[in-house]
Queue: 2 jobs
Job 1
Amino acid sequence: MARFKFNLLDIFLALFVLLTGAVVYFTFVKPISFSNLILREGVSGYAEVEFILDGDLDWLADKIPEGLESKNIYGSVDWKILAVGRENLGERAVRRIKVKVLLTRESSGLLRYGKYTLVRGGKIVLINDDFLLEGRIAEIRLLDEKILI
Amino acid sequence: MNLFFLQCQLRTSRFADFFRAVLTDHASLEASGLRRACQSLFKTAGNGLKPFPADDAPAVTEAWTRPKLLAGLCLALVWAAVFIPRLSLGGLAGHYSLDLKAEDLLLIVLSLLFWARSSGAVASGPVFRIESAFLLFLIFAAVSVVSGLTARTLDKPLVSLLYLIKWFEYFLVFALTARLSQRPQTAQFFLKGFFWLGLAAAAYGYFEHFYPLSSAAYPNYYRLYERPPFHGDANHIGGLFAVWLAFFSCLYLRQPLTPTLSPQGRGRIQHGACSLAPAAFSVPVGRGSIAGQPAVFSLGSTGFPSPFGRGQGEGAVVSWILLAAILFVFFPFIGTFSRKSYFAFAGAYAFLFFVPGISRRRWIFLACLLICAGFVLPTRLAERLSDLGEVMTAVDPFHSSWAGNLDVWGRCFWNFDQFWLGGAGLGARHRLFYESQYVMVLTETGVLGFGALLLLLFVPAVYAARESAKQSLQGLAAAAWLTAWAAFLIHNFSCVSLTVSKAAIPWWFLTGTVFGWLNSRETA
């Protein structure tokens, strides 16, 4: 078979130039929407979560400093304590903690913090090197803060 | 039907002809339009850069590798890829974060210099078949983006384009290193640079071990190389170490090259072996060597004694130094707590047993030494490996990383039959989603891209396997590369090592160095 006279690099570069034009068009004009034909990773975001601290950890509530946070290895805030309050549920006094958490919104719409699904009544555990806070979720509110990919 | 007959059939078959025609053995960079564009750009700018003389191909490569600056720049690029953290330039279009990396800038400078000064004479050789396989993969990766846009499985095409540029960068690292390394001195300079790269990364590991950047409450592991200047890179640096350890273990274990060479031949090989050495480890060579050449990595070759008491000379000292270097890197390697990297190195080490010319006695000695060092000393290696059975049998993807991988891979192949040929498009998902280079390439670039990736991985391996049997320094380098390849191949099963620059750039640098040297017509 005779040798073809072509340069693969030039073919790639020609494709690349065409692709660059297409990509600029598809990125800024956005003529198509995602088809949902593939399952993908969840989208990261922040939410304010309020949870009731487990009763056996009540003694810890007064020792939690406001602004206490835990960062992940990329330097992003993983969770941050926004407020620690007291509340009466009937005759029982409980400790309510408001926290900002880095969550993942899955394509199904579920919100997850690590392995915990964020739903009201769901369990949440926050750990850093000084504290382990465990409780049941009372409220969840998604924040607008964007995380760049 | 014997082997010879089969080889003849393969040589004359149309199938093999087709591959030889597509994976051409001609250099692509020199014949590319980019070279002409680059040169006219420099001419317009009045730079006055003169191209190198175009008498013949080896002369071109020799001429353009002459400036030590280019070789230094290439080595700096690899070091920058491992050590210099990315700089954030902010966001784009509200979704994308733009990062600047030092190696990107260095590569641009290096490429421009190459194209501006290349004479355009096209060289040929087996190394350029690897280059062609790389380009074939890049073409199918570009086709996959079109496929993804058509199937609407890509909604962030800019990310895909950036991935493609990153792969093109890896191609350039390989292609430029291979050209520079056709000069044996440069190849050996690069290998020394790679040797020191592993030691420097390990030295940083010791520093971080003794001065940790944060605390990790027991039973959590404090994994090295996760925090700045690194960026969650324990697995990637673990992969780099696995490759490094495999490569230098092979150098350490290789038997004496040939004791029956003529005095002239002995001298030549000895000279080459010596020049693989890091200068700081060099010791003067005694009688029978080329005057003034350091003797490192000779490992008992050319008549030097081994560390097992077959004599007492500089070769033995060198062997001990190399053994010490392997041990020095081994502990930070454990400190990554990257099980996939452990398996990669263990697999490569087992593979090494079957590499021709390996000293089986040394193999057993080194294996025992590493096992004792890992399990007897307080390294937590045993603890890290002891829960493996539980990890492999657990079904909760949030509890077991293996179950998590299976879960993710199952999700990757959902609807795959709808775009099996061209794939869902490069960059269809975040790279960290996959935890496997092969799953990533297969699902993103389809069967076409995956086939091209297999060619890219196996074409050099076949070439290296053929060369590794030769009793020469190039043969030694080929055998060592083959061992490193085995480590990298295993590592890619559960890590996207060919995508992440901290593992991929050193890998393509090492590959370019070894194959450029193998392509050289000069004997070391």
Note: The beta strands of chain A are 43-53, 69-71, 77-89, 92-105, 111-113, 116-117, 123-127, 132-142.
Job 2
Amino acid sequence: MKRQRILALMKIQYKSLIGVPTTLFIMLLLPIALTIIFGLAFGSVIMEDTGQSVFEFLVPGLFALSGLFMIIPVASSFSEDREKGLLKRINTTPTTAGEFMGSHLLSNMSMAILQVAIIGILVFIMGYRSEGAIAGIFLAFVFMVIYSLSSIGLGLITATIAKNAKAAAGIAWIFILPQQMLASGLYPLPDSTRAISMFMPLHYASDALTLLFDGIALSDFRIWVDLIVLIFFSLVIVSAGILLFKKYGKV
Amino acid sequence: MSKSENIDNTSNELIFGSANPNAIEVKDLRKTYTGKKIIKEVKAVDGISFSINKGEIFGLLGPNGAGKTTIINILCGLINQTEGDAFVGGYDVKKDLSKIKELIGVCPQQAAIYQYLNAKENIELFGNLYLVKKEEINKRMKGFLDLLGLSEASNRKAKKYSGGMLRQLNLIIALISDPPILFLDEPTVGMDPRVRRTTWKFINSLKETNKTIVLTTHYIEEAEALCDRVAIIDYGKLVAIGPPKELIEKHDCKNLEEVFLKITGRRILEGI
């Protein structure tokens, strides 16, 4: 693994944040817009049973959602780079598959941190106060970074299936919608329906964020169960994504 | 600074894998694609053998689908051959691909460039992938951009480039690591005649750096002007090989294009 190569590839991916409108929109503008809209719409609507505002109820889901949408730019960028022959060209250089994939994982994971930080600042400005301790907030970052791995994996699976970048952006919704509807925690669902979400990584990220923002003690085993299951899901999905893209991605 | 001085011809010191004088050697190379539906099997490369000397500009000519790009893709390690052997810089493409990748520069048929980056950023990226030092990247980049007349546009995003400029940038990227072996897959396609001539001059100037260049092209006059030797490929088979002048004399033609048409056009003329 050569640092010069990994840093060069990461730099390109960061530049795509500004240079590629889809990436900029999905990675930053959409989460920001959703946070502002939900904040303005539901900030003063109080839920009778808990006494908290609907916005406060939605905040963990908003964080989770931003990580979920990452599937689209990941799928689009891999598909587009393949279409333009860039993946093939990089394949003729001494760059190893590990360096190439490692750079993508690192850059997307760091973008997940950026997303969480931006949404965190926004919800704070809009009046949300987490009851969690600093360590809990830090752990929330860790959850989102690990969760981003599963989104990268699903992005790679999408790019494997899709013929081009436009198709990839559409196909990505196959993975986004079920998780958004069932596992994001944005919608109140009956327990039987919620049970399906146990097979989705977002369930564990969203559940842990809710617990952490509610100020639960870090010694609570539920957080650690969420963390272990999320790590398992994310590693399986990202490994499957890398293997499938390598084998069937037509690079 | 003269044009030839712009290119550093002292840094071309990467070590070849054997004492073999050939930069590239291909022995009974075959590539068969297996289809699933009506067409069961396509022989893209059908038992080709040739060798390319160090410092030679070697042209691969042939009609569309003759197998030129397939040969280049095998030599670059992008696809595996079905049978036969191929050596680049003395290294076996099946066993020593990582060593081969350090020796080669590839200018693909499709201008593979990050459109949201400018020329400098694109060149810098690929320089970094070959672990070229920053100062060296900047020095070479300046030389190449000046030679091809892209300096003024080098800070402009690639998406604003014309087709010809993209092709030139595509070529510079292939050269940034100063590779001893260069694969140019139709490097001038889509260029206007003026830009094409400038690019020919540029490729010709690379001869002074003792690079081995494998060039595929549809412009036969390009091959005649640039190549020391050419191989004509048709239906995956090698049908002629030699210096353009010799081939012209041997086939009693006026130029290489006539030779090409005489050899590859026979089947069309005979209605096969």
Note: Chain B touches chain A at residues 76-78, 98, 101-102, 104, 106, 108, 110-117, 121, 124-126, 128-131, 157, 173, 177 (CB under 8 Å).
